[in-house]
Amino acid sequence: MDLSGLNSRQYEAVTTTEGPVMVMAGAGSGKTKVLTTRISYLISEIGILPENILAVTFTNKAANEMKERISKMLNINTSSMWVSTFHSFAARLLRMEINNLPPFNRYFNIIDDDDSLKIIKEVIKELGDISYQAKEMRKLISNSKNFLDFKIDNLAKKNDFQRVLDGYTKRLEEENLLDFDDLIIKTIELFKANPDILQKYQRKFQYILVDEFQDTNGLQYLLIKQLSNMHKNIFVVGDDFQSIYSFRGAKIENINKFRREFVDAKLILLEQNYRSTEEILNLANDVIEKNPNQIKKVMFSDNSNGAKPKLYNAYTSYDEAMFVCDKIKDLVLKGDSYSDIAIMYRANHISRGFEEQLIKYHIPYKIYGGISFFQRAEIKDMIAYLKLLVYQADDFSFKRVVNNPKKGVGDSIINKLSDVARNRDISLFEAINYYEGKGQGYQGLLTFKSQIEAISAEIENVKLPDLIDIILDETGYKDELQRVEDEDVYQDKYQNIKEFRSILKDAHESSDDSNAEKLLSLLSDLALKTNNDNNNDGNSVILTTYHQAKGLEFKNVFMVATEEGIFPSSNSFSDAEIEEERRICYVGITRAKKRLFITHCDHRRLFGYDQEMYPSRFIDEMDKSLFEDNKPKKTIISTKPSFTKAPVKEEIKSDVSLKVGDKINHKIFGDGIIVAKDGLSITVAFKQEVGIKKLKADHPSIRKL
Q1: Neighbouring residues of 62: CB distance < 8 A, sequence distance ≥ 6
Q2: Rounded distance between C-alpha atoms, residue 529 and residue 510, angstroms
Q3: CA distance 190 to 184
Q4: Rg of the Cα trace of the chain?
Q5: Nearest 5 degrees, angle CA 603-CA 605-CA 611?
Q6: How deeply is 647 buried, as exposed, middle or buried, from its count of CB atoms within 10 A (0-12, 13-18, 19+)?
Q7: How many CB atoms neighbour CB 181 within 10 A?
Q8: Under 8 Å CB-to-CB from 101, ≥6 apart: which residues?
Q9: What is the pLDDT of residue 688?
Q10: Which residues lie across from 194 on neighbouring strands?
Q11: Which residues pair with 592 in a beta bridge?
Q12: Between these two residues, 693 and 241, which has the higher pLDDT value?
């Protein structure tokens, strides 16, 4: 087998076949090449049968790519090889062995999240006195199966959870069902209950390979350890610099745990990068070295003729988006394709300002792993409500939101109402006046009509962005959203709605017309954005979060909105959380092949409010010699950032011995981190809904944590 295409470290990783091996593979270092070449080497050079090799990864795409590469190398059929995701491996094994784990049998069905949620709803209905929603219970059940340290502190919630879990588990057992989270758990349980079956597969899998090891959770680690205990030919490849999925249960601690439990494991570092220029890697190395307790790697590249990364400090978020669009046009003019370019950000709601400018510049774009800001259901709902406020005859918008939140107005009532409207040649909204009905649905129609009329009457008496708050409160939309969605989904959707306020604030300040006229003009403009066609045969700029971008690479990368409170996230307080945010920054930098632009601004309109922003601490940590700092002359903006101060009482003097990086608690704003200090003035990054605040360090409402 020809191994001449490997560098010395890759060669060592491929040919060190016996015993435990840990490969720390830096970004762009040829990790997949090493994995597939090693499997091919075991088969062609060592003589191992393909069925005696197990390789697990995290996505079907990665597993299929590995199979394809092995097939091309060896010219063999790889379809039956044990190369798959963790869950596919578990499902395949259980299909053969689960008869040994009664009451299940090999004809079990795997249910998806929707089916799981449906069963939980039925269990809650049967129990009758559960205080929590099915979606919340579904998430808790999933967490209990994925997090070994799972616990619930609230006693009432804990009791409700246990009753729902017991009922849910009983239903699955009675109907021979497994949910997605059960697959690995039941495999581990099978092995514990049947040592002979465990030994059977320990003998079978003489060589085990694990991809993206830094993303394994506690259960996945336990499963791999069970299987590898006999031969101990366990090969794990990953990168502690790129461990960014703790919210999914990934345990970066598994890397150190592996080294403790496999004391004779060989450590191999893949440090040569084949993706990025030396200049980009220098910055990545500089950022990640600030994290303690990691395996030291220094990435390098033979490509040393690149440009230094560029830092751009805009005055406003509008200026920032214009800079990015201007630069994209310039790159394309010089020969790059739109698909060579990515705009990356920490939070989904950040895409909104960039999408608006991309549309104005006629630049095609796609949201990778998500949907456009203007195509999101919650934004379409808000637009529908706004349309009804100024034009109640909009039947399309009426149908979208009349039963959102739910008020018993089902399809049958809408059909009857449509008959009334058709017979009288009037709108659905007006037809409510002539609809003869009773019960919850009829009352729901009357309530909806009353809400729209009441809010519409206030259009000229309030600022346009305040209409969103009124809609959320008066219709119960926010409460319903919080009730039916998981907490993380709720927060994401609610942040998007709050960011929509920024669009209304722009419209409010756009002219001296009446609010109704401003709103009509805005809605006309939004119609073009929600119908924006970005299908350009794949030649589109990619907008993506850093988490979605992991594993991707682009010739040109824009890392935008790199400001305190956004990146690192305002929800990150502990040292471990900040270290993960820094790893996310490293992932962003190492997506760039040729050019990297890092942007931030002094003033950002967030959630309809103008906020003074400060550069991310990750920018402050960077060696200034490693990038070009392009700070333009400040432009004049039409509106001055405004800040609201909460009333406080003068009580006792607070501790003024505060410094940047200290964690504090504010009586009104909650916990935050000091990001800047000027005399007795401190700037604090609170949680995202609060944002950045400039405060007096000695104010009695502040205490150091």
Answers
A1: 32, 85, 211, 212
A2: 18
A3: 10
A4: 28
A5: 50
A6: exposed
A7: 18
A8: 94, 186, 189, 190, 193, 194
A9: 61
A10: none
A11: 554
A12: 241
Tell me the helices (H) and strands (E) count for the chain, helix number first. Answer: 26, 21
Does residue 465 have a cis peptide bond before it, meaning omega lies within 30 degrees of 0?
no
Model confidence at 39: pLDDT above 70: yes
673-692: string of b/e by CB count within 10 Å (b at 16+)?
Answer: bbbbbeeeebbbbbebebbb
Nearest to 112 by CA among 181, 186, 189: 181
Which amino acid type is present at position 132? Y
Tokens of 289: 């070295």
**The dihedral of CA 239, 240, 245, 249: what is its sign?**
positive
Residue 257's alpha-carbon distances to 13, 26, 253, 261, in angstroms, are 20, 20, 6, 6
* Predicted local distance difference test score (pLDDT) of residue 528: 64
Alpha carbon distance 547, 244 (integer Å) = 7
- Cα–Cα distances in angstroms (integers) from residue 547 to residues 366, 585, 587, 662, in the given order: 16, 10, 9, 27
Q: What are the pLDDT digits (tens) for 61-89?
A: 899 999 999 999 999 999 889 999 999 99
Residue 526 near residue 390, CB atoms below 8 Å: no
Half-sphere exposure of 239 (CA within 13 A, CB side): 25
Q: Is pLDDT of 667 > 70? A: no
389 token code pair:
């406020």
For 450-494, the DSSP string reads HHHHHHHTTGGGS-HHHHHHHHHHHH-HHHHHHHHS-HHHHHHHH
CB atoms within 10 A of CB 279: 21
Q: Which of these, 478, 475, 524, lies nearest to 497 by C-alpha position? A: 478
- Answer with the residue of higher pLDDT: 648 or 65: 65
> Higher model confidence: residue 531 or residue 367?
367
- Three-class secondary structure of residue 50 per DSSP: helix
- Residues with Cβ < 8 Å from 366, sequence gap 6 or more? 534, 540, 541, 542, 543
Whether 167 has a pLDDT exceeding 90, the answer reads yes
Sequential DSSP letters for 317-385: HHHHHHHHHHHHHHHHHTT--GGGEEEEESSGGGHHHHHHHHHHTT--EEETTS--GGGSHHHHHHHHH
Question: Residue 344 is encoded by which pair of tokens?
Answer: 């990356």
**Burial class, 482, CB count within 10 angstroms (exposed 0-12 / middle 13-18 / buried 19+):** middle
Joined tokens for residue 294? 């990691």
656 pLDDT band, cuts 50/70/90, is: low
Instruction: Give me 493's structure tokens.
Output: 């959707």
Residue 211's region, left for phi above 0, alpha for psi from -120 to 50, else beta, is beta
Catalytic machinery residues: 31-32, 211-212, 242, 591
What is the dihedral angle through the alpha carbons of 359, 365, 369, 374, rounded to the nearest 10 degrees?
10
- Whether 548 contacts 369, CB under 8 Å: yes
Our measurement of the distance from residue 289's CA atom to the centroid of its chain's CA atoms, rounded to an integer in Å, reads 25
Chain mean pLDDT for the chain: 89
Q: How many CB atoms lie within 10 A of CB 518?
A: 21
| Amino acid type, 199 | Q
DSSP 227-241: HHTTT--EEEEE-GG
C-alpha span between 199 and 177 (Å, rounded):
26
- Distant-in-sequence, close-in-space partners of 498: CB < 8 Å, separation ≥ 6: 349, 468, 607, 608, 689
The two structure tokens encoding residue 674: 């000091």
* Model pTM score: 0.77
* SS3 at position 550: coil
Helix (H, G, I), strand (E, B) or coil at 417: helix
Burial of 9-43, coded b for 16+ CB within 10 Å and e otherwise, reads: bbbbbbeebeebbbbbbbbbbbbbbbbbbbbbbbb
The answer to whether residues 509 and 638 touch, using CB atoms and an 8 Å cutoff, is: yes
Residue bearing the bigger pLDDT, 222 or 638: 222
